[in-house]
Structures are given as structure tokens and as C-alpha cells.
Recover the amino acids of this structure.
């Protein structure tokens, strides 16, 4: 029989849990979770229909690729995810590479779900990755192996320092472009994903693809290495385009592969409804 | 004058979850008159008027007191496509009559916003117009989805079909309703 620990000691132990978990890899962690609760721990996206389809959300600690062409809603989905998390007390960080911060903020301010206070209080952190690379003295266009390693350390440090539970990289495509070989891309995403998983931080990486392609990523490595893929596309109906969303893969949970019609509105952000048959 | 028609429709709408109204073109404006006169007098229930080929603006001009009525909301599927970008409190604008999923999202949203104990009614004007813009199979699926949602959410639907435009497809859809009313001169 276990001895009951004094409460002070108990607090110290719980406090240290994240540090011990850093050593474990993703598989170990998921297994413990399954054993302890009978179910994988989930991170809700905060978009009702999507969480339902994922049986409660994304398995905590996963790295999920959000794929789509320009204007398909990737940034909006990721922001909604961060803000919904912050509203529940989960801190998040958004690394932007393609858009400067002022532009990102200006777009997102248009949505009712956006709450400036969450940014001001540090529950949602918006960071321009180009400024970080600049400060690290990295080449703006191409990273060497050392550059990539330095950047990775900084990203890990930021995530750890802020104790974030949700991280967004917008876009991984732009970052991959700066990493010169497939090995470097693989290494970077793998290491980032593993460290974040150990911190129980759930990560969304946006992947930019040309319109109406059946590709999920620019370099293919991104999609193989990620735990999940959410695809944003569109279908044509009598000349009008209907936005769609589909969960293509999600390790560690059952999910539907139903194609959804996706609505983006100022008042309610992203909403989904099963796509009706077209032509 | 239109009291007979009014009574028949709204009695049926109260009893049945979904009713279909088949109306000859000649009597369409009587039907419209009857429906709006009923809705305008009703302050207890919540109404959504989903129109496929008519604009909110036209309705406002035709029926006095609509804009001020708090319990009637419109969904307009034609104005945006015509390049009209105005915003109105009493109306949700949808870019195109093919955006059927968005129609359902907006209907459910309006109904979710209102108190749970009020009666909710949806008027779909019209299935025949929806058919012009969409594939018949898609319209059928849309309608089935709507009927299922109405049962689950306890809302009532009234769907209009023009008699002259009835065809095999529309027959199949209209008969998904719990009750069909054919408007005849004798009612009016
Ligand atoms: N405030 C807003 N209200 C409604 N829709 C918006 C708003 N801001 C942007 N959108 C819509 O969201 C779309 C997707 O934008 P975004 O998420 O930036 O796409 P992506 O990141 O995939 O390029 C835009 O093309 C626009 O149609
Ligand atoms: Mg974007």
C-alpha cells in the first residue's frame, strides 16, 4: 500500500512532473495517459463540430498539419484554436513567418472571437519568427545546420519559458524553404515535435499548397512526420466555391473522414456542417 | 378575406412539424399576404423567412412594420449576388443560393439564440426556386437535413412549392413533409 505523502512534498512532485516528462518520448507518454485515464488526453480546438468529429479533440502533444491554399482559412483556424485555448486558461504562442505581426493582428481583430486582453495578458503570444532569426544573426533566406539548431533551441526555450500548451507555426512551408535539405526538414520538425510533446504542448503547423491539388505539403516530409492532417479545400457548386474541411489523419484517436462545408464569419469564426452532395 | 387560408396554414403548422404548401402562381401573392399578416400579428413566436429569389429590400417595401418586428428574421440569398452589400439587423445575407450548408448554419444559429420555450417557425420560399439553382439531389439532401434538424430542435417548417413548377423531383421532396396543403381558390 502506498504511503500518503505530506501535502508540501506532493506539490513539489507535481510541480516537477513536466521536467521528468521531458525525457520520455511521445509513445511512452501516450501509453501512460491511456493507462491512467482509460482514454487519450485531448486538446479541444474549440470548434464544436470539429471536436466532435475528433472524439473530443486532438490528442494532447500531437503535431498537426493544417493544409490549404492561400485564403483557405489556415490562419483563422489556428487563431481560433489559440484563443479558445487561452479562454480556458491554456497559454499559447503563434509564430508567424509569412505575415508581419501588424498585418496578422489587423486581420484577426476583425473577428468577434478575438480578445485583445488575451494578448495583453500574455495568454496568447504573437511572435514574428523573422525578427528572431534576425536577432540570432541568421541568413534570411537559407539556414545552415547550425542555424537550424540555434533556432530550434530558441523555439523550445520560448515554449518552455512561457509554459505554453498550444503552439502554432504559420507556416511550416516558409520555414522548410529556409531549411536546405530534406534531412534538415525532417530533423527540425521531428525534434520540435518531440520536445513539445514532452511538454504536453499541442502544435499546429500550417502548410501552404497550390489551389486544387491533392498534396498535403510542399516537401512531403511535413505530412509523414506529423501526427495529424486537417485539409482545407473547396468544391465548386454551379460556379460558386464552397469552402471545405476534412480530417485526413489523426493518430491516437478515431475520427470521421466526412467532408464538411466550412463557413467563416466575422461573428462566429469557423463553423462546419457536413457537406451536402454536389453535382 | 384571407382568413380562411391563414387559419388553415397556421393551424396545420402548429400541429405538424413540417408542412408543404402547393400554391398556384395566381394565388402566390394571396399566400404571401396571409402569411405576413399572421406573422406581423404574432409576438409570441420566432419566425425565419428564408427567401431564395426575393430580396429583403423588396419585402420591406411591400409589408409595413416588418423592419421593426423583433421576432421575424430574414435570410436573403439573392442580394449579395446582385452586388448589394448593405447590412441589416433583421436579415442575414448569403452570397449565393447554392450555399445550402450556410443556410442551415444560419437558421440553427438564429434559433439557438432565442429562448428555449418559444415556438420556432421556418418558412422556406421556395423549394421550386431552390431547384433552379441547385442539383435536385442536393436540394433533397438539404431538405432532409432540415427536416431532421427541425425534429431534433423542435422547430416547425413551412415549405412553399409553386404548383406550375411541380415535377417529379419536387414531388419527392414535398412529400417528405408531415402534411401537404394545396391552396385553392375556394380557401380564399
Ligand atoms: N473578419 C473576417 N470576417 C469574415 N471573414 C474573414 C475575416 N477575415 C478574413 N476572412 C475570410 O477568411 C479567409 C481566410 O483567411 P486566412 O485564414 O488568412 O487564410 P490562409 O491563412 O489560409 O491564407 C479570407 O480569405 C476571408 O475570406
Ligand atoms: Mg495565412
Amino acid at each position: 500500500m502506498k504511503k500518503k505523502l505530506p501535502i508540501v512534498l506532493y506539490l513539489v512532485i507535481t510541480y516537477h512532473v513536466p521536467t521528468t516528462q521531458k525525457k520520455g518520448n511521445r509513445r511512452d507518454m501516450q501509453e501512460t495517459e491511456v493507462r491512467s485515464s482509460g482514454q487519450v488526453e485531448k486538446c479541444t480546438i474549440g470548434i464544436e463540430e470539429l471536436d466532435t468529429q475528433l472524439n473530443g479533440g486532438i490528442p494532447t502533444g500531437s503535431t498537426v498539419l493544417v493544409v490549404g491554399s492561400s485564403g483557405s482559412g489556415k490562419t483563422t483556424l489556428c487563431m481560433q484554436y489559440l484563443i479558445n485555448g487561452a479562454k480556458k486558461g491554456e497559454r499559447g504562442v503563434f509564430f508567424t513567418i509569412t505575415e508581419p505581426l501588424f498585418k496578422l493582428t489587423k486581420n484577426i481583430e476583425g473577428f468577434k472571437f478575438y480578445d485583445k486582453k488575451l494578448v495583453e495578458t500574455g495568454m496568447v503570444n504573437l511572435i514574428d519568427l523573422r525578427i528572431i532569426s534576425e536577432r540570432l544573426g541568421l541568413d534570411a533566406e537559407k539556414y545552415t545546420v547550425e542555424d537550424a539548431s540555434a533556432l530550434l533551441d530558441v523555439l523550445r526555450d520560448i515554449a518552455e519559458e512561457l509554459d505554453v500548451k498550444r503552439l502554432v507555426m504559420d507556416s511550416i512551408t516558409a520555414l522548410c524553404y529556409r531549411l536546405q535539405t530534406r534531412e534538415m526538414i525532417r530533423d527540425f520538425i521531428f525534434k520540435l515535435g518531440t520536445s513539445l510533446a514532452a511538454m504536453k504542448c499541442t502544435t499546429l503547423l500550417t502548410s501552404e499548397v497550390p489551389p486544387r491539388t491533392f498534396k498535403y505539403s510542399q516537401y512531403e516530409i511535413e505530412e509523414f512526420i506529423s501526427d495529424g492532417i486537417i485539409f482545407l479545400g473547396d468544391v465548386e457548386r454551379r460556379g460558386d466555391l464552397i469552402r471545405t474541411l476534412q480530417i485526413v489523419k489523426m493518430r491516437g484517436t478515431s475520427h470521421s473522414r466526412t467532408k464538411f462545408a466550412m463557413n467563416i464569419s466575422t461573428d462566429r469564426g469557423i463553423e462546419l456542417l457536413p457537406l451536402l452532395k454536389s453535382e | 378575406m384571407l382568413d380562411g387560408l391563414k387559419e388553415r396554414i397556421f393551424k396545420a403548422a402548429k400541429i405538424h412539424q413540417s408542412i408543404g404548401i402547393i400554391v398556384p402562381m395566381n394565388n402566390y401573392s394571396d399566400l404571401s399576404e396571409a402569411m405576413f399578416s399572421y406573422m406581423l400579428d404574432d409576438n409570441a413566436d420566432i419566425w425565419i423567412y428564408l427567401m431564395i429569389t426575393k430580396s429583403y429590400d423588396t419585402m420591406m417595401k411591400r409589408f409595413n412594420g416588418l423592419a421593426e418586428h423583433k421576432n421575424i428574421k430574414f435570410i436573403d440569398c439573392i442580394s449579395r449576388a446582385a452586388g448589394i452589400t448593405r447590412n441589416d439587423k433583421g436579415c442575414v445575407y448569403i452570397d449565393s443560393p447554392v450555399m445550402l450548408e450556410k443556410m442551415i448554419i444560419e437558421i440553427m444559429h438564429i434559433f439557438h439564440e432565442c429562448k428555449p420555450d418559444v415556438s420556432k417557425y421556418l418558412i422556406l420560399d421556395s423549394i421550386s426556386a431552390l431547384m433552379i439553382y441547385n442539383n435536385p439531389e442536393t436540394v433533397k439532401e438539404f431538405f432532409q437535413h432540415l427536416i431532421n434538424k427541425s425534429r431534433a430542435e423542435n422547430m416547425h417548417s413551412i415549405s412553399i412549392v409553386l404548383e406550375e413548377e411541380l415535377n417529379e423531383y419536387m414531388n419527392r421532396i414535398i412529400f417528405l413533409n408531415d402534411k401537404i396543403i394545396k391552396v385553392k381558390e375556394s380557401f380564399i
